[in-house]
TrEMBL record:
It comes from Dipteronia dyeriana. InterPro entries: Znf_PMZ (IPR006564), Znf_SWIM (IPR007527). The keyword Hydrolase does not apply. GO terms for molecular function: zinc ion binding. This is Zinc finger PMZ-type domain-containing protein.
Length: 120
């Protein structure tokens, strides 16, 4: 699979997907879900990229609650293909490569100065 997400991020998202298997899900409408975990309930709104736990809004990657909702909405068979649509664009492989495309030059520290500077 040629993902638009970085491998480490993709692995984290798939781990979140595995953790979502323990949640009980109830669909509302328009991509809204209620998820029941071991200790409390969470509301997920797929169209707003939000979950009541707040993790999705902060990290910009779907946590287990969102992964359960995405899996229910699209079906488990296409989950890997659709999950990247719910990750913020700034976390994609193309943006990462664009950010680090320029050369980073090393400047050695001077005697007595124990700092190392990097200049773009």
């Amino acid at each position: 699979m040629n993902s638009i997400l970085l491998p480490r991020l993709n692995a984290k998202i798939m781990k979140n997907g595995k953790e979502s298997r323990n949640l009980t899900i109830t669909a509302a409408e328009n991509g809204e879900y209620e998820l029941l975990g071991p200790s409390r309930e969470y509301g997920v709104k797929l169209r707003e990229y939000s979950c009541q736990c707040g993790y999705w809004q902060i990290s910009e990657i779907p946590y287990s609650h969102a992964m359960a909702a995405i899996s229910h909405y699209y079906g488990k068979s296409v989950l890997k293909d659709k999950v990247s649509e719910f990750v913020h664009n700034s976390l994609t492989k193309s943006v990462y490569l664009q950010t680090y495309r320029g050369m980073i030059h090393y400047i050695p520290y001077q005697r007595g100065d124990h700092t190392c500077l990097l200049v773009y």
